[in-house]
Structure formats: structure tokens, C-alpha cells
Amino acid sequence: MASRGLSYAISRIAGSSCMRFRSASSLSDISRQCGRSWGAIRSYAVAAEVDEEPIKPPFDITYTKLLINGEFVDSASGKTFPTVDPRTEEVIANVAEGDVEDIDRAVKAARKAFDEGPWPRMSSYERSKIIHRFADLIEKNNDELAALDTLDSGKIYDQARLIEIPLVTRLFRYYGGWADKIHGMTLPVDGPYQAYTLHEPIGVVGQIIPWNFPMVMFSWKVAPALACGNTIVLKTAEQTPLSSILAGKLALEAGLPPGVLNIVSGYGPTAGAAVSKHMDVDKVAFTGSTEVGKIIMQSAAQSNLKPVTLELGGKSPFIICEDADVDQAVELSHFALFFNQGQCCCAGSRTFVHESIYDEYLEKAKDRALKRIVGDPFKSGVEQGPQVDEVQFNKVLGYIDAGQQEGARLLTGGARFGRKGYYIKPTIFADVQDAMSIAKDEIFGPVQSVTKFRTLEEVVKRANNTDYGLAAGVFTKSLDTANTLSRALRVGTVWINCYDIFDASVPFGGYKMSGVGREKGEHVLKNYLQVKAVMTPLVNPAWL
Amino acid sequence: MASRGLPSLLSRLSLCTSTLSRYIASSPYLPRSLGNSWIANRSFAVTSEIQEEPLKAPVEVQHTKLLINGEFVDALSGKTFPTLDPRTEEVIANVAEGDQEDVNRAVKAAREAFDKGPWPRMSSYERSKIIYRYADLLEKYNDELAALETLDSGKTFEQASVVEIPLVTRTFRYFAGWADKIQGLTIPTDGAYHAYTFHEPIGVVGQIVPWNFPLVMYAWKVAPALACGNTIVLKTAEQTPLSSILAGKLALEAGLPPGVLNIISGYGPTAGAAIANHMDIDKVAFTGSTNVGKIIMKAAADSNLKPVTLELGGKSPFIICEDADVDQAVELSHFALFFNQGQCCCAGSRTFVHESIYDEYVEKAKERALKRVVGDPFKIGVEQGPQVDKEQFDRILGYVEAGQQEGARLVTGGARFGSKGYYIKPTIFADVQDEMRICREEIFGPVQAVTKFRTLEEAVTRANNSKYGLAAGVFTQNLDTANTLSRALRAGTVWINCYDIFDAAIPFGGYKMSGLGREKGEYVLKNYTQVKAVVTPLTNPAWL
């Protein structure tokens, strides 16, 4: 998750100084220099279960209210909910709890801002300038936003501040650039008529984002919706409300008119449901579980038929072919699964290894997992923080139990790490069979399922034998293999010899029950536009 | 409905021979000159209620079975259902009644054809050649297909043979040309990565078409889905199964491999629901009522989250501005509503007339309606045939009653025409108020609701005050008015000084509860493709 995800995570291990990334002149420099360090020695990287005092983050919590119509307000009910530090299981802050009434208020503000306000009526150049200013402010507040995400979610602070928040800035700049390039078409027709299309903003957009990459998901949703001239009601995840509230403040500072971006903290069954059912919300975009995605689409169908974009679960295969360098394959597949505590919708959670290198792979994958540094995510050098909350923590441990009961071979890990916080030991199961729940269900944690294959045909069939179709990894040197697999895999993203390379311009989304529609790139724009065809007769046309 | 709908109808009125109007329809330059015939003398066009023997349709019904896996078969249950001639209320033929298990068989055939068959694996050039051949065969069988349409639906034969079936041919040729132009993108990224997209066929496509334009709707659905390399399970409307079965036979003749196009006759709650709920259908496209559209989307959400395209109801405004030539406005707004017995999703069913010309308009609109020739749709010169079936017939008469009860002024019509068949007199209500049911609900019949407005701002507010947003008509010579209204109206199509101009290249679809997505043009292709991003690292790239 992030355009330098892989290279960054690996280089951190080998180079052990985060500062060097700050001085890298471009993303590609970092990618290149890190790409070569796959085989580097990681002698110091030993997991330790020492209980230390949690590191105090370098920022205070200032913003905990709802952002409605350009103002920070309490919820209509006056209620708040606690957001918890997953390192300590203690309360960080009490946040205003938005519910149906607050969504109504937010929609009313967004409706007014769309129907009467300046936002869709200003020139696209003006809109683009405001979005660019917003990007500058996010960049300026990079470390504070990163700290909030780490505090709320347990993700590695260096990952948040060196990869995620810069990617957020990048996303807003990318879509700042699209704002004045939303072109319709003029169309050749069969008779003397002039026909053209207007690509209009769709209106009030409802967006519901998850907790695993709070600010990155904020940017994937908010940036293109703003670029297209819409107004927004955004519901954040109850686990991670803090960074979005600060971002909302920065949006106002950048000059976004009141009511254009409304941010409601709260729970799915209350505030989230109110967004998806609302008769005055013109579109809904959701990222989260497949189960909730179905509810969102049902609500859209039952209410006003708002179009739906869904970015849902996955059980993505990572296929290591016969010709692979095993050391590199181990490192990349390790990253593909364990990145962000395994909490990625596109995690490479089914590792298919060719039988000829299977035993060697297992041994080395185990070594690598044992060396993974678990600990306080604010500590430099740590690779894995706690899971986001108790629900997830218990769910992951439940799957570990199930894996053992169903007869998979536990290679390493398989238990809680330490005594406090939601930490879990990096876990690998070998000899996993396709019918086991750990090979079928999304675990969303640091649990790798490894399985053996013989032929490409077999692996394609097994890789595709799932309800999901979000992403796939392919590790091979053979061009024929790469071309064959990239067509045959029924998934929205194929990473060949890389993984989790996110880039503002590359579309992301799922086949099958991994979702509907695409985000990022040019493709996302159509989610936030209506197409209007306009026709009029031509009098004495010079050409047709 | 049809790229030359208006002119060809008008030409029929003034020129009165079908060979001539066919010639006219084939010339792209003639519509303009025919535009001048708006105010032509229509002295012969007098409505008469004489009951004659229905003309014998120039076609024999030969094909009544289901098309599954390249073969015409009976329903598994052995059941059939009658399809009726709306002129006589008598049975035309008994047609195999597809149900859930027939849909299952069809999906299995389509799945096999997609997963293993030649269709997605042949070159796009080969696919395009088959689709072009198919278009040639449709053209060859033009009059036979048209006669089946008229027999089943009651639409005028000339409209079907001169406008609709040629448009079907045109649509297949248009999308045949797209087949080898479905291009992905290569994408510049921020790092040393090679990224590109495939726009792949989405798989097995379920399509459900309505009865008002059976083969045109067939073409809008089938042509782009085939061009993108998908396989299809199509359910036709129970009122109008016949033409699609013949079209299916022609598809086989054109060389479409078995299982690529499966056609099921049957009912919505049985066969239609089986498609929308099917776990092995990868996409569903539906044209029909908003109520059923909601059921389709909910079924998609409940089952496998298949993406949904919906083309639903409308209550489209036709706005006649202060500067309009009243005679021309009367003719065009009459056409916008009464075309195809008023059975168009995009019918201009709310006529907004500026107060300065309102009285003159109402008087002339009444005259025009009184001159509308109602009668046997096979008879040359007839403008309006029967409604499609008894249910529609009763529903429309119910709305006529409601209009009177709610206090609208009945200007003309308002009753059954003749004593046999589902004929209704062309009906106009004046002084219609926005909250009346005839101004809010889709009537889908020959009932025009006329209302007065004072300012453009008022017309926009009232025109947009609808849950629908399919189309709008604007009648003005003022460029500012045209530009203002074309942006302000929340509708998927705006026809300025024309109406029902359909063209293969122009997208069609609704805002709000008129639907999701667009059909026709380049836009429809994304409904039938999945986007896959492929990313791989670059070694020593010459440029980025």
C-alpha cells in the first residue's frame, strides 16, 4: 500500500536509517536503490518480546468533532465514542459520535453546497488550485497526520510518514491536475445533428472508508470526487477517526467552501447505513468487507438507486514459479502478506510455490518470519505493530486455531506476541489445502498460507477458484509465463515481480466479489461524473 | 427512438408511401429538409373509429423455442405461454416458457463458451467479422423481423421496418467496428515500473430487455457485449419474445459459436430473477421499470455483487420557451410524447409551455392530437397502434381517470378507441399541476400532460423536481437559453429542437432513479469490460 511499499519496507530493514529516504530526490530513486537490497543481510533483525513503555507520539490530539458545513460541531445527540491505542488498549480520545441526524445535517450542507454553492460553479482551474493548496498543506502537516494514523491504527510510524502521507499528497496533486481535464466528447452521428457529451459532477457523494489505511483511503475517495466538482459526506472508520478530522481542517484552510467536504465519525450500522440509504445522496463509494459491501449495495437499491463503487475483500494469490530466485521470492511474498500487519485488502494471502522449490522456500520463509521485528510502531526499525483492535485480534487468532484444527502445518508463530496490546507473532502455515478456511477466507492479519503446485494450468485454476478477485502476485523471469498468467488470472491487479506498488495513475479494484468499479487513475473519474448527451439539429453544415 | 425517428414519421405523413420513406430514411441529408414539413398539410389524417378486419401480418411465426448452447430447445418443464396480438387480443403463438432451470442451463452453456470456447480466444478481428456478418443478415431479414415486432407489440409496421430494424443493423455494425478497438492504456508511474491495463471481457453477461422496442433493446445490449468478447444469457419480455428468437437464429447463421448467445423467453419473477440472482453470471444489464430495477440491483447485491447497468423509467420534461414557433413546437412535443403509443422510457411526458404562448399551444396541440391516425399498425398511414397488452391498457386508462379526478383539464381523448384491441385515443391534459399523479408518475401511454411556466428558473426547478432524470426536450432558438438549460437539467439526454434522436454513437441513460450507467457509444463498452492493471519493475529504463 503506497507507491514505495515494497522497496521502502525492504530498504528499511537493510539500511536501518529512515532519514536517507527523506533525502532521496524522487520516488524512483528510492525504488531503485531499495530494489537491489533484496538479498541484503538482516543480522540485527531479531524479534524480541520485551515489554517497554509505549513511546509517546510527538503530537497532541486537537480535533475530535464532526466537520459539517465548514464548522467543527458536536454530534446532535452529544454522544462520543472512545478511540483506542492498539499498543496499550487504552483510550486515546473521545470523539463525537455521528448518527443518522448528523448524516442528515451533513447531507443538507453538501446538497446546498452543490445546488447553490460556489464549488461546482467556479472554474475548474479555481477548483484545481484549491486542491493543490490542500495537497501543500497535507505535505506541511505530514508527520502529524502520520502520527495520528499510527496512534489510531498501530501502523508503523515510518511507514505512515514516509510512504502513506506522501502518497496522500501525491494523490491530491494528481487529481488537482485532472480537475481541468474532465473532457466530454463531440460525437459523429448519422444525420445533420450536433451531438456532444457533458461530463457533469454527479452531486452529493457519500463515501465510507476503512481503518487500515485511513488517510490513503481518504485521498482515493476525496481527491477525485473534489476534482470532478462534487460535494462530499465522508464517514470514517470508528477505529481511526483522528487523521481525517485534521485533514478536514486543512481542507478548510486550503479554501474549500463550507459544506463541500463534510466528515462524520461514527459506526457503520448507524452513520454508515444512513449514508448508503440516504435519498439525497447521489452516489456512494465504500471500501471495506464484502459482507458490508453487499449491505451498501442493497441499501442503494432500496433507496434511490444511487450508483455504487465497492472496494472489498480479497484472498489474493502470490504465485512463485519454478524459475524464481528463492531468496527474492521469500522476501517479496513475505512483504506481500505481512505488510501493514497483514491488514491489506490485497494481501498476498495464498502463497503458491512450485513443488521444485517448495521445501527450500518454506525453510527460508520461516527464517524470514522469525526475524520480523514486532514492537512499538513508533520505534524506528520495527516492522510490525499491533493489530488494529480487539475484534480483529481475536478474529486472526481464531483463524490460527482453525488452521491447526483443519490440519495445516504451523511453521512458525501462531500466538499472541507479548502481554499487552494487540500484537500477533508472524505466522506461517504450510501444506495448506484449498478447502481449508485459512485458504478461503480473508484473515486480515499476519498469517501466511503456503501451498504447493505443479503446473501453471493447475495454479491458474486454483488461484481463480475463489469468490474474490482483487489482486495477484507473479514471481517469474519467464516472459511467456508472465504474459500467460497476467491474462489468465481473474483479478483487478497483477503485480509481476513486485507487490503493493500503488501509484496514483494505476487503477485499483476487484473482479467478482472483490468489488465493483475502479479507483485511482483516469478510471475513477467516471465514478464521480454523470454523462449527459446533448443534441441539436444542424442547419446547412459544412461537414458531418 | 431511432436515429431518424422524427423525420421518417413526419415524412410518412406528408409523403405517404413506404418505399419513398425508406429511401428518405437511408439518406442522412434528408431529415433537415423534412424538418420543414413540420407544418405540412395533414388534411387526410383524420382519426376514424371504423372497425375493419385486422390486416394479415406479412410473416409466419416459425421460431418459438429457447436458444441454449446453439440449439433451439423446449423448456425443461415443457411449459409454454401464449403471446398475444394486441390488435385482436388473440393468441399469435405459444412460446417455450423458460424458468430457473432453463436459465441455469443457459448460464452453464455461456460459462463453458466463455471459459473454454473459441469466442474470447479468437482475434478481435474474427469477432468483428462475425458481428458484421450478423448485421448483414439482420438487414436481409429486415421486414420479417419488423413484422414480428408489430405483431407482438402493436407498433406501426413502417416504424419498425423503416426506422427500428435499420437501427438494429446500424448498432451491430457500429459495435462490430469497436471490437478491434478495445484498447487498454500504458500508464506513466512515479517509479521504475512498467504499468498497463487490459480491458478484458467481464465474462457471462445477463441481459433483460423490455417489450417497447424489442429488437432495438436487443441490439443495445447484445452488440456491445459481443464486441467486448463476452457470452450472453438474454431474457426477452414475455409480451414480445418472437423477434429475438429469429434474431438468435440469424446469429448462429452468422457464425456465432454455440453458447455465446443464449436467449430465454419467459417471465420476470421466474427467469428474470434467476438471472439477477445467479452466482455464475458476472454482470447484469436491465431495461425496464424503476421498481424492477431496484429488485435487480438488490438481487445482484444479495448474490455475487455482479455489476449492474439499469435503464429505467422517466418523466421527461419538454420545455417550450417563449421564443418558440408554436406550430413547430406542437409537432415536436406531440411526437415526443405520442411516438410508439407513448411507450417510451424517455417520452416527453411533461410538456412545459411558456405562459405567453400557452393558450395557442393548447389549442393547436388538441388539433394535432385529433388528427392523429389510430388504427391497425400494419396499415400504411396509421400513426398509432394499440398499447402492448391489457395490463398496460388498463393502467393508462386508470391514469386518465386519476387526471380527471385530480382536477386536470381533459382537452381531448381520454377513452378507449374502438371496441376491440388495446387502442386508446390520443389524450391531452392541460393545466396540470406538479403534484398530480399524471405529472409525477410514468404513464407509458398516449397521455400528454401540459403545464404552464413563467421563468426559465422556475421551469428548471420544476423540471428537475422528479425522482427521474432520463431525458429532456428544449425548444428555443436562443443560444443562451439552450446552453443554460442543457447544463441545468439533471437528465442523461437533452434534445434541443429535436427529440428521440437515437444514434449508435450517442450515450443514453439516466440520472437519479432513471438508472445506472450508459448504453450506446463508446461509454457502454466499460459495462462489458473488466479493467486489469499489470505492473512489473523496469531494469535500466531508457525513459520513464
Kindly list the characteristics that best describe this protein.
A: 544 residues, alpha/beta, globular, B: 544 residues, seven-stranded mixed sheet, six-stranded mixed sheet, 17 helices, disordered N terminus
Report on this model:
With 544 residues, chain A is α/β, with parallel strands linked by helices. Chain A is 38% helix and 18% strand. Chain A has a 7-stranded mixed beta sheet with strand order 14-15-16-13-12-17-18, sandwiched between helices. In chain A, strands 9-8-7-10-11-19 form a 6-stranded mixed beta sheet, sandwiched between helices. Chain A is globular and about 75 Å long. In chain B, strand 15 (427-430), helix 15 (437-440) and strand 16 (447-453) form a beta-alpha-beta unit. In chain B, helix 5 (124-140) packs antiparallel against helix 7. Chains A and B meet through helix 3, strand 6, helix 11, helix 17 and strand 18 of A and helix 3, strand 6, helix 11, helix 17 and strand 19 of B. Strand 20 of chain A pairs parallel with strand 19 of chain B, so a sheet runs across the interface.
What is the mean predicted local confidence, pLDDT of chain B? 91
Largest chain interface and its two residue counts? A-B, 82 and 78 residues
Number of strands of chain B: 22
Spatial gap, N to C terminus of chain B: 48 Å
What characterizes the major β-sheet of chain A? 7 strands, mixed
Sketch the major β-sheet of chain B. 7 strands, mixed
Compute the CA-based radius of gyration of chain A: 24 Å
Q: What kind of assembly state do the chains in view correspond to?
A: heterodimer
- Low-confidence blocks of residues of chain A: 1-48
Topology, please?
The complex is a heterodimer of chains A (544) and B (544).
Chain A (H helix, E strand, L loop, with lengths): L4 H11 L3 H5 L3 H9 L30 E3 L2 E3 L6 E6 L4 E7 L3 H16 L8 H17 L1 H12 L3 H22 L7 E2 L5 E9 L2 E5 L5 H14 L3 E5 L6 H13 L6 E4 L3 H10 L5 E5 L2 H13 L5 E4 L5 E4 L5 H13 L11 E5 L3 H14 L18 H16 L3 E4 L14 E4 L6 H4 L6 E7 L2 H9 L6 E5 L3 H10 L4 E4 L18 E2 L12 E9 L7
Parallel strand pairs in A: 7-8, 7-10, 8-9, 10-11, 12-13, 12-17, 13-16, 15-16, 17-18
Antiparallel strand pairs in A: 1-2, 3-4, 5-6, 6-20, 11-19, 14-15
Helix pairs in contact in A: 1-3, 4-10, 5-7, 5-9, 6-7, 6-9, 7-8, 12-13
Chain B lengths: L4 H11 L2 H8 L4 H6 L30 E3 L2 E3 L6 E6 L4 E7 L3 H16 L8 H17 L1 H12 L3 H23 L6 E2 L5 E9 L2 E5 L5 H14 L3 E5 L6 H13 L6 E4 L3 H10 L5 E5 L2 H13 L5 E4 L5 E4 L5 H13 L11 E5 L3 H14 L18 H16 L3 E4 L14 E4 L6 H4 L6 E7 L2 H9 L3 E2 L1 E5 L3 H10 L4 E4 L14 E2 L2 E2 L12 E9 L7
Parallel strand pairs in B: 7-8, 7-10, 8-9, 10-11, 12-13, 12-18, 13-16, 15-16, 18-19
Antiparallel strand pairs in B: 1-2, 3-4, 5-6, 6-22, 11-21, 14-15, 17-20
